[in-house]
Design a protein that fits this description.
With about 150 residues, the chain is of the alpha+beta class. The protein is built from four helices and five strands; from the N terminus they run βααβββαβα. The protein has helices spanning about 15-25, 35-45, 100-110, 125-135; strands at about 5-10, 55-60, 60-70, 80-90, 120. It has a five-stranded mixed sheet with strand order 1-2-3-4-5, sandwiched between helices. This is GNAT superfamily N-acetyltransferase. InterPro entries: Acyl_CoA_acyltransferase, Diverse_Substrate_AcTransf, GNAT_dom. Keywords: Acyltransferase, Transferase.
């Protein structure tokens, strides 16, 4: 197997980003209007401390995974926290280290600015992802609630 390459998203990645993000949303049985795709893509390239950022993973020159992450303030630290919001690898590529490489890229990028807390969540039924997460991170035990 060739080496996985993880790099920041580039404007030229739009079609592959859209394909991967659509597959991620489909996995979670979600659809978003084109306007959300457009504004998200724009935000990924908008400078600013709290704007979302993204990485894409390639294998043999083919886009096979993506992640979005963002920084936010915390009342528990002087430094920001980093929320890894979306993480996806093409289903046929799972188990090849793509998810771990994307997580590590976010950890390293956050570390460059002194951020130590990189966190994320997944659905309790996502057994494949949870095997990876249990290997690369610690489970906090917190339970999420929302007001949707």
């Amino acid at each position: 197997m060739t080496e996985i390459t993880v790099r920041p998203l580039a404007q030229s990645d739009n079609a592959e980003w859209r394909r991967l993000w659509t597959a991620y949303l489909t996995f979670y049985e979600t659809k978003l209007p084109d306007e959300v795709y457009d504004v998200t893509w724009k935000r990924l390239f908008t400078p600013g401390e709290f704007e979302p950022k993204g990485f894409i993973a390639t294998l043999d020159g083919k886009a096979v995974g993506l992640t979005h992450y963002l920084y936010h303030r915390s009342c528990w630290s002087e430094k920001n926290n980093c929320y890894l919001q979306d993480l996806f690898a093409d289903p046929e590529m799972r188990g090849k280290g793509i998810g771990a490489a994307l997580i590590e890229a976010v950890r390293q990028e956050a570390g460059k600015i002194g951020v130590k807390n990189v966190y994320w969540m997944t659905h309790e039924t996502n057994a494949t992802a949870r095997r990876l997460y249990d290997h690369v991170a610690r489970r906090t035990g917190f339970i999420e609630y929302d007001l949707l």
